[in-house]
Write a structure and sequence with these properties.
Number of helices: 2
Radius of gyration: 16 Å
Structural class: mainly beta
Number of domains: 2
Strand order of the largest sheet: 6-5-4-7-8
Number of strands: 8
CATH topology of the largest domain: OB fold (Dihydrolipoamide Acetyltransferase, E2P)
Largest sheet: 5 strands, antiparallel
Shape: globular
């Protein structure tokens, strides 16, 4: 990921900032310019909760080159306590112990290192609540 993209997405990546439509209340994550529900263009910032339940997941056994040292790993979709669904990698758990419906906590973690200069990219990952 390029450093300029990391900078543009820092609100959603580092602080879990979403946008809430002022007209209908729809919460968009990542933030949008136009509400997909009503077409309005006025939003307010909404910080997402850091807890939820795992809705579905998949295990990646043959990973892309930048993640080969992590394989096998799981990526899942969780429904947060406010109803918003987001996707992230599951961390700190054996892929054999992951279950749909398990409670998760979102933690801020290093995602990858970019290029020969070693620019670190951070983001969020799901961690089982029992961790």
């Amino acid at each position: 990921m390029f450093p300029s993209r990391i900078w543009r997405e820092k609100g959603q990546r580092y602080r879990l900032e979403a946008s809430k439509c002022k007209k209908c209340g729809y919460i968009a994550f990542p933030p949008r310019l136009v509400c997909p529900e009503c077409g309005a263009r006025e939003f307010e910032k909404e910080v997402l909760p850091d807890t939820g339940k795992l809705v579905t997941y998949t295990v990646i056994r043959v990973a892309p080159s930048q993640f080969t040292d992590e394989a096998p790993y799981a990526v899942g979709i969780a429904e947060l306590t406010n109803g918003v669904k987001i996707m992230a990698q599951l961390a700190d758990c054996d892929v054999e112990n992951i279950k749909v419906g398990m409670e998760i906590v979102i933690e801020f973690r290093r995602v990858q290192t970019h290029g020969h200069h070693g620019v670190l990219s951070y983001g969020y990952k799901f961690v089982p609540k029992w961790y």
